[in-house]
């Protein structure tokens, strides 16, 4: 706990204490928020954004690969699938699905308004932020002006303004800022605008690294943050309420983020599932590029520097490696113990003119945020394509979203075709781990070296389509120390598939060749 807390910013500690004390005082005095607030909205114009994956049809909600149909009225507090599903239910992302009618969307919004006083998780600042944007997009698309909805939404923005997520910071506070900007434009509210611009100016400078990556180093969250940034650009470009330079800042950060996303994405448009990343959650790289093109945005080239990721590719393969620290020290909740992890996809010619990119060595992926064995396993060193020493994690991930002591890169040397790096994640064991990748036209060589003899295991997790025969053809090492086991590859949230993992035991030095 000490090694987790010591990395927090003063702001986080202060607001955790402040909100804790305030909640107890308010409970004693019987304070309650008003769920309606007199408002005056302004019609907006927006071009069409990306679709999201949450859907609602014939009374059935489908989110995170789990469906639920409510027999009578909707239970906006439904907790049967865990808190993340409840959150997604109250985000109202399904309002953006293709085919969502005006009548159905209004019915869902009014149902939520009628039950607002009894809503729990959905009135936390994060779901309020996402719901506010989704409601405003829906109301704008269908040219809806209904006072009851506006007054409910305005009251929700007042609650958000009173509970901004300074105790968390990171993507949570940035989402608050994005949403406040939408609320400010929709209600032409100077107070909302002042706070929105304050958050966005500070947090975009803090959270977007020089190479364009979002500082939590999850490609999925990078896509989500970029999507929200494009939404705000859409808002300002098409609604000239303010002319104060904010648009230029947002466009600059979007260009930088687009460059990083295009650099890290594979040529087929998929992303490496590094840290907390899953398929079927964020808009795809292609969708985001199309959205940016419609907004006439430029893309800034990224060299994949500060984020600690590198990509090597030729006519045979694409390989993404992780030679960086785990991410922002004060908000590492989406980080894994995965230092020196990598993914490898092969370019397979399936016809004379057509080559397809097929995943070979993969990250285990992400299937849950619920605290427990599965969450712990997916964040562990053993779940990644790197070296586990004496059964320990390279970074001390715990509690679902916490990290105590963490691996640091203490030496790095790289050139066009070779990278050597050393991390100190096992320093408590008196061990430093050095890994070298050599990238050649027809093979990749990986050499691991530990600073003393000890019990260690290197792992290679393969895509479910990869058979034992293919593995034995392509992987060369001391096979007497290697064995194939089964693991659960995450196809997305709440959805896994059996696949093969090679576990190679060694004591100090290991050399693995991957024939391509």
Keywords:
single chain; 516 residues; 6-stranded antiparallel β-sheet; 4-stranded antiparallel β-sheet; 13 helices
Topology:
Layout: H1 2-5, H2 10-29, E1 55-57, E2 60-63, E3 66-69, H3 83-91, H4 102-114, H5 125-141, H6 147-161, H7 170-187, H8 190-207, H9 219-238, H10 246-264, H11 285-294, E4 309-313, E5 317-322, E6 342-349, E7 355-361, H12 373-379, E8 387-389, E9 397-398, E10 402-403, E11 409-414, E12 418-423, E13 433-439, E14 443-450, E15 456-461, H13 468-474, E16 475-476, E17 482-492, E18 495-506, E19 509-515
Antiparallel strand pairs: 1-2, 2-3, 4-5, 5-6, 6-7, 8-15, 9-10, 11-12, 12-13, 13-14, 14-19, 15-18, 16-19, 17-18
Helix pairs in contact: 3-5, 5-6, 5-7, 6-7, 7-8, 7-9, 9-10, 9-11, 10-11
Give a written overview of the molecule:
The protein has helices at 2-5, 10-29, 83-91, 102-114, 125-141, 147-161, 170-187, 190-207, 219-238, 246-264, 285-294, 373-379, 468-474; strands spanning 55-57, 60-63, 66-69, 309-313, 317-322, 342-349, 355-361, 387-389, 397-398, 402-403, 409-414, 418-423, 433-439, 443-450, 456-461, 475-476, 482-492, 495-506, 509-515. The chain has 516 residues and is α+β, with helices and mostly antiparallel strands. A hairpin with a 3-residue loop joins β4 and β5 (317-322). α3 packs parallel to α5, α7 (170-187) packs parallel to α9 (219-238) and α9 (219-238) runs parallel beside α11.
């Amino acid at each position: 706990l000490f090694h987790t807390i010591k990395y927090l910013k003063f702001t986080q500690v202060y607001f955790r204490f402040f909100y804790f004390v305030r909640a107890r005082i308010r409970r004693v005095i019987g304070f309650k928020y008003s769920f309606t607030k007199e408002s005056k909205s302004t019609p907006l114009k927006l071009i069409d954004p990306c679709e999201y994956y949450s859907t609602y049809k014939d009374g059935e909600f489908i989110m995170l690969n789990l469906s639920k149909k409510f027999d009578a009225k909707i239970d906006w507090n439904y907790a049967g699938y865990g808190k993340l599903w409840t959150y997604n239910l109250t985000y109202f992302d399904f309002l953006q699905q293709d085919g969502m009618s005006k009548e159905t969307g209004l019915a869902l919004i009014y149902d939520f308004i009628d039950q607002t006083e009894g809503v729990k998780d959905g009135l936390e600042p994060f779901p309020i932020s996402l719901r506010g944007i989704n409601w405003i997009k829906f109301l704008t698309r269908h040219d809806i002006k209904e006072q009851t909805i506006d007054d409910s939404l305005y009251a929700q923005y007042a609650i958000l303004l009173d509970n901004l997520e300074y105790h968390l910071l990171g993507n949570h506070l940035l989402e608050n800022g994005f949403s406040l900007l939408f609320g400010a434009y929709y209600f032409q509210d100077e107070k909302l605008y002042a706070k929105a611009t304050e958050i966005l100016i500070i947090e975009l400078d803090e959270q977007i690294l020089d190479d364009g990556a979002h500082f939590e180093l999850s490609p999925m969250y990078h896509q989500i943050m970029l999507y929200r940034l494009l939404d705000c650009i859409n808002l300002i470009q098409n609604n000239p309420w303010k002319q104060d330079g904010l648009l230029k800042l947002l466009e600059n950060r979007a260009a930088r983020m687009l460059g990083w996303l295009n650099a890290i994405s594979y040529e087929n448009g998929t992303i490496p599932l590094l840290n907390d990343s899953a398929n079927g959650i964020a808009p795809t790289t292609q969708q985001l590029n199309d959205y940016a093109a419609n907004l006439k945005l430029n893309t800034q080239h990224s060299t994949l520097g500060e984020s600690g990721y590198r990509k090597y590719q030729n006519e045979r393969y694409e390989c993404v490696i992780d030679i960086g620290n785990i991410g922002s020290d004060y908000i590492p909740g989406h980080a894994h113990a995965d230092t020196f992890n990598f993914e490898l996809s092969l370019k397979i010619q399936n016809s004379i003119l057509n080559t397809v990119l097929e995943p070979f060595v993969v990250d285990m992926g992400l299937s849950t945020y619920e605290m427990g064995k599965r969450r712990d396993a997916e964040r562990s060193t053993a779940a990644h394509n790197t070296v586990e020493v004496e059964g320990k994690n390279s970074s001390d991930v715990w509690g679902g979203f916490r990290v105590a002591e963490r691996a640091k890169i203490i030496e790095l040397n790289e050139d066009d075709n070779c990278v050597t790096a050393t991390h100190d994640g096992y320093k408590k064991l008196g061990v430093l781990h050095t890994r070298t990748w050599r990238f050649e036209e027809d093979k990749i060589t990986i050499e691991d070296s530990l600073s003393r003899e000890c019990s260690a295991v290197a792992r290679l997790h393969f895509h479910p389509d990869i058979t034992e025969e293919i593995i034995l053809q392509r992987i060369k090492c001391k096979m007497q120390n290697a064995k194939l086991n089964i693991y659960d590859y995450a196809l997305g949230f709440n959805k896994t598939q059996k696949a093969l993992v090679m576990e190679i035991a060694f004591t100090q030095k290991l050399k693995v060749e991957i024939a391509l």
